[in-house]
């Protein structure tokens, strides 16, 4: 018994290409990005898991104070933001590839790719703002709502 897999309906088929090269080959750079970001993400994620789960008291130490202390260091802010950016762009690029392969019309592809781009941009902006503006001890907050490690206001 043999199974035949239908060819994806990609607008970028070999027959559509001409022998004249025009501009930047975005598909090639997207492919390279996926490989490089994948390797970097493996390193970043396993480093993240090792520090959060294995070093110190392990999973029992994960709480608001742990995150507050970690994000007070510029090193961990950059680490987490780099992980966020790489993961979101990597996932968005993968979704873009799926849309290119399976969306049947140019309008559908445009709508889906625009929605993916909007979601990735919004999540990157919000995530970056959270990491760099995080303050576990906000000024003017009631003392009973502050964590125990914050000086009383």
UniProtKB/TrEMBL annotation:
It holds the Pfam family Sdh_cyt. The keyword Transmembrane applies. The keyword Transmembrane helix applies. It is found in: Membrane. Keywords: Heme, Iron, Membrane, Metal-binding, Transmembrane, Transmembrane helix. The chain crosses the membrane at residues 32-55, 75-93, 114-134. CDD domains: SQR_TypeA_SdhD_like. It comes from the Bacteria. This is Succinate dehydrogenase, hydrophobic membrane anchor protein. The lineage of its organism: Bacteria, Bacillati, Actinomycetota, Actinomycetes, Micrococcales. The gene is sdhD.
């Amino acid at each position: 018994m043999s199974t035949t897999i239908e060819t994806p309906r990609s607008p970028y088929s070999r027959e559509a290409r001409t022998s004249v090269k025009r501009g930047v080959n975005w598909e090639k750079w997207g492919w390279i990005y996926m490989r490089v970001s994948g390797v970097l993400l493996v390193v970043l994620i396993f480093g993240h898991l090792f520090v959060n789960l294995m070093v110190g008291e392990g999973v029992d130490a994960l709480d608001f104070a742990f995150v507050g202390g970690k994000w007070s260091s510029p090193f961990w802010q950059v680490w987490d933001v780099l992980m966020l950016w790489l993961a979101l762009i990597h996932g968005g690029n993968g979704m873009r590839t799926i849309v290119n392969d399976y969306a049947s019309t140019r309008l559908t592809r445009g709508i889906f790719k625009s929605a993916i781009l909007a979601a990735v941009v919004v999540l990157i902006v919000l995530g970056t703002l959270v990491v760099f503006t995080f303050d576990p001890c906000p000024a003017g907050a009631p003392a009973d709502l502050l964590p125990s490690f914050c000086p009383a206001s």
